[in-house]
């Protein structure tokens, strides 16, 4: 994955206001990790430019490349819902990536 930052905003710009933080962990099925990474490579720039997205990062496990960590900061619950209902989410995540996963966990947080 080549994309790590979004537009010209800095991390401090993103976190200096309220928002909904979502942390997700995925594990690809045996032999599917590279396919998942390729799907996420197309998905990430779309997620980062979504107007309700303040910060969106995806990491891949160094010790276990079948593991992926998502760190997502949205303006609010409505922005997160719009993200999950977007055409790019449905295509990349729901249709392509989810069938390749052995495990998917997601937790939501409010910023302090």
From TrEMBL:
Residues 20-109 form the ABM domain. Coiled coil: none annotated. Pfam families: ABM. InterPro entries: ABM_dom, AI-2_Isomerase_LsrG, Dimeric_a/b-barrel. The keyword Oxidoreductase applies. It comes from the Bacteria. PROSITE patterns: ABM (PS51725). Keywords: Monooxygenase, Oxidoreductase. The keyword Oxidoreductase applies. One of its GO terms (molecular function) is monooxygenase activity. This is Antibiotic biosynthesis monooxygenase. It comes from Bradyrhizobium uaiense.
